């Protein structure tokens, strides 16, 4: 049963029972219709709609999108609730999101628990509220609050909802509170409680509000369609009668749900949930972690320590000297205090977090740590020295993690007497902000150690992706062919600005050359000098090497591929870098040509998908969708594009494979090794998503 009913005196209480989140599946929608019919049949004086398991309704059932519609549809159910001639009260607790909040808006009264989360997160799925939400919300709360709720997707708490007039009262127990209100209102007239019957007027102030909001949305949600379309619909509530506004909302919803952005965003929603699940062959409980040790209080170590302290764990942070410790903790405190100003944290929270930190210069102090994460310099020798030391002092059963971004975790584990306790936990900078945690499962990593890392990701609100051992794991390994294509395009005639603009127009947070400037061009330079390059790599190294040798190290030296204004950091072309690029092209006798944005996108994005397919085929990643999650959360790939593998799927693997084969046979063929898995899937007419589904079954 999806909706159970029970009479409390004259009040019929309909409880939605669709765990885990009470999504509005077809059965739930039908159950609500049946419950209303029952209330009428039994002559109930009022009705309460509640959710089982401490949560009201988390929204429409996302799995039903894209499938043939099944009656009753949600807008009809919400209208039917509102049309009831007895008072209907929503008992709001837990997640009350999307269609769930729209059901509540259809009710005549709303009682919320203080801890409930009320929101319209549809824009996060590339959609807008499609069951009257864009029209009822502004008829209940102020234009600016309605706009904020609908276009940001961010939920609010019960108390705030009460303050803005979204609910009629707050009760510690929303269900008993709602029943009490229903008893009080039983048999009363509800005609003035129907939100859709209220009229709105467009004023200059409201118009101004929307203009300001549009500019803000364009900045915050660059490239994303839904937030703007959602704002359009809310605005329509002020200029159109309810029925017309709802029609516009429905048409927009139908258009968005079938659009590429929503398909990509729904893909990422489920991909995020899949990526943090343990691999199929792992069946173990995580080890208990109460105390964490972090080695290194620099940018990475500091960010990692902040993450754990914020999650309520005690963190012992080790550095080589008191000065380094003082500096590191000072930076952490400054970051936290900045959060007080922006309202993200309170003074008390900052004090609590600081109290959870124990600074030390003595390895002995890590003896009682349950999990130790090393974030020291990225060279194998240093990592090995640290792990040898950890093997001596860490207590039996402690999980030993390396924050390496490239190095062989098997080799690191091998210096210890307990390789089963060792794994990689690769954080992204700034570690307290970036969501991605790449968990590197080494050959001997024990199942419960892997489970501990996954549990820690959940506890610290990171999005985990499990990777196998290879140079650069999933994310950084894919960067190499991506950067190589950018380099080849530059040699062939594209300017840094042109390449970066094509990428940011495509949706990337930053262009690849701007990222190089930000990270420091000397890092790549040093790593190239540390190894022997193949001839084609030497050719590509000429431009970046000469740029570094001319003193352009990126943002930190004021110039790299671009010049940076010392005051504003504003970016402009760097004529000296451009001259180097031109000189190298001349020396190599390159036939410079005009390069289109389409070619830039095709080559860079297909290079990513191709390497992703190598990684998938080698079993380094478990799912194509994990690769997408890594790129969206760790590398600034536009969420609404769904990630590089989903993008390849959306183009069609047949097309992608053909192009890659052409490139591999062409002039720059040396940079392409078509991935066998990609070719095989294309041949079979399959997508990466089909591959993931097959793997999940088998
Ligand atoms: N539909 C279908 N499945 C859903 C779902 C939904 N709306 N919301 C969550 N689930 C599933 C998840 O996929 C997951 O399944 P799994 O166990 O098989 O992986 C399971 O429920 C539990 O979800 P989480 O792991 O995310 O649980 P949390 O407790 O961490 O988070 C949540 C709960 C905050 C509700 C989060 O799941 C969430 O944000 N859900 C989506 C909410 C949303 O976007 N609602 C709007 C939907 S669109 C809509 O309503 C359109 C309407 O306007 C017409």
Number of strands: 19
Which segments are poorly predicted (pLDDT under 50) over 5 or more consecutive residues? none
* Structural class category: alpha/beta
Number of helices: 29
Bound ions, cofactors and other small molecules, one mention each: 3-hydroxybutanoyl-coenzyme A
Kindly report the average pLDDT value. Answer: 96
Question: Strand count, sense and closure of the main sheet?
Answer: 8 strands, mixed
Radius of gyration: 28 Å
Intertermini distance: 31 Å
How much of the residues is beta strand, in percent? 5-15%
Estimate the global geometry from the Cα principal axes: globular
Q: Percent of residues in helical segments? A: 40-55%
Summarize the structure.
This protein has 698 residues and is of the alpha/beta class. The longest helix is centred in the last third of the chain and has 21 residues, at 597-617.
Labels describing this entry:
binds 3-hydroxybutanoyl-coenzyme A; 19 strands; alpha/beta; globular; eight-stranded mixed β-sheet; 698 residues; 29 helices; six-stranded mixed β-sheet
Describe the structure in your own words.
- The protein is an alpha/beta fold and 698 residues long.
- The chain has an 8-stranded mixed β-sheet with strand order 12-11-10-13-14-15-16-17, with helices on both faces. The protein has a 6-stranded mixed β-sheet with strand order 1-2-3-4-6-9, with helices on both faces.
- Strand 15 (422-427) and strand 16 form a beta hairpin.
- The two termini are 31 Å apart.
- The mean pLDDT is 96.
- It binds 3-hydroxybutanoyl-coenzyme A.
């Amino acid at each position: 049963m999806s909706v159970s009913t029970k009479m409390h005196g004259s009040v019929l209480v309909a409880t939605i029972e669709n765990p885990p989140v009470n999504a509005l599946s077809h059965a739930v929608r039908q159950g609500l219709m049946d419950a209303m019919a029952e209330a009428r049949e039994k002559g109930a004086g009022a009705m309460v709609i509640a959710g089982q398991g401490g949560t009201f309704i988390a929204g429409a059932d996302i799995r039903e999108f894209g499938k043939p519609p099944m009656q009753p549809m949600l807008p009809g159910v919400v209208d039917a609730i509102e049309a009831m001639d007895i008072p209907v009260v929503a008992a709001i607790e837990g997640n009350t999101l999307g269609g769930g909040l729209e059901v509540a808006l259809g009710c005549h009264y709303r009682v919320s628990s203080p801890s409930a989360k009320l929101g319209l997160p549809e824009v996060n799925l590339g959609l807008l509220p499609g069951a009257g939400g864009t029209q009822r919300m502004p008829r209940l709360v102020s234009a600016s609050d309605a706009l904020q709720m609908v276009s940001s997707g961010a939920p609010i708490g019960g108390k705030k909802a009460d303050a803005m007039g979204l609910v009629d009262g707050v009760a510690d127990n929303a269900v008993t509170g709602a029943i009490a209100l229903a008893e009080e209102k039983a048999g009363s007239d509800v005609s003035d409680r129907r939100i859709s019957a209220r009229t709105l007027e467009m004023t200059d102030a409201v118009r101004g509000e929307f203009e300001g909001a549009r500019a803000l949305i364009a900045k915050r949600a660059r490239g994303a369609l839904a937030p703007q379309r959602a704002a359009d619909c809310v605005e329509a509530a002020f200029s159109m009668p309810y029925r017309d506004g709802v029609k516009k909302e429905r048409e927009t919803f139908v258009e968005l749900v079938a659009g590429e952005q929503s398909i990509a965003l729904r893909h990422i929603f489920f991909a995020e949930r899949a990526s943090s699940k343990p691999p199929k062959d792992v069946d173990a409980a995580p080890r208990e972690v109460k105390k964490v040790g972090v080695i290194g209080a620099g940018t990475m170590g500091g960010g990692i320590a902040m993450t754990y302290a914020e999650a309520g764990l005690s963190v012992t942070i080790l550095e080589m000297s008191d000065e380094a410790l003082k500096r590191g903790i000072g930076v952490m405190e400054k970051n936290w205090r900045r959060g007080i100003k922006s309202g993200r944290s309170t003074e008390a929270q900052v004090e609590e977090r600081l109290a959870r930190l124990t600074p030390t210069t003595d390895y002995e102090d890590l003896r009682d740590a349950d999990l130790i994460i090393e974030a020291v310099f990225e060279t194998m020798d240093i990592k090995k020295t640290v792990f040898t030391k950890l093997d001596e002092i860490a207590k039996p059963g402690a999980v030993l993690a390396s924050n390496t971004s490239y190095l062989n975790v098997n080799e690191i584990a091998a210096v210890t007497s307990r390789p089963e306790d060792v794994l990689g936990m690769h954080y992204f900078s700034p570690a307290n902000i970036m969501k991605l945690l790449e968990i590197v499962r080494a050959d001997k990593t024990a199942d419960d150690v892997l489970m501990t890392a996954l549990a820690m990701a959940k506890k610290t609100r990171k999005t985990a992706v499990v990777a196998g051992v290879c140079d650069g794991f999933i994310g950084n390994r894919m960067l190499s062919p991506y950067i190589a294509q950018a380099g080849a395009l530059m040699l062939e005639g594209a300017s840094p600005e042109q390449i970066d603009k094509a990428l940011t127009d495509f949706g990337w947070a930053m262009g690849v050359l701007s990222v190089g400037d930000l990270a420091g061009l000397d890092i790549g330079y040093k790593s190239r000098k540390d190894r022997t390059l193949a001839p084609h790599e030497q050719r590509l190294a000429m431009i970046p090497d000469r740029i570094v040798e001319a003193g352009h190290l990126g943002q930190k030296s004021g110039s790299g591929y671009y010049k940076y204004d010392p005051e504003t950091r504003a970016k402009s072309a760097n004529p000296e870098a451009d001259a180097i690029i031109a000189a190298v092209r001349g020396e190599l006798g390159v036939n410079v040509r005009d390069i289109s944005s389409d070619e830039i996108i095709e080559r860079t994005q297909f290079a990513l998908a191709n390497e992703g397919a190598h990684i998938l085929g080698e079993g380094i990643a478990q799912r194509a969708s994990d690769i997408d999650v890594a790129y969206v959360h760790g590398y600034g790939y536009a969420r609404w594009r769904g990630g590089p593998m989903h993008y390849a799927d959306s183009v069609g693997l047949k097309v992608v494979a053909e192009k890659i084969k052409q490139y591999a046979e062409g002039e720059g063929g040396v940079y392409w090794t078509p991935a066998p898995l990609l070719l095989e899937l294309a041949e079979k007419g399959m997508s990466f998503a089909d591959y993931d589904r097959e793997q999940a079954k088998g």
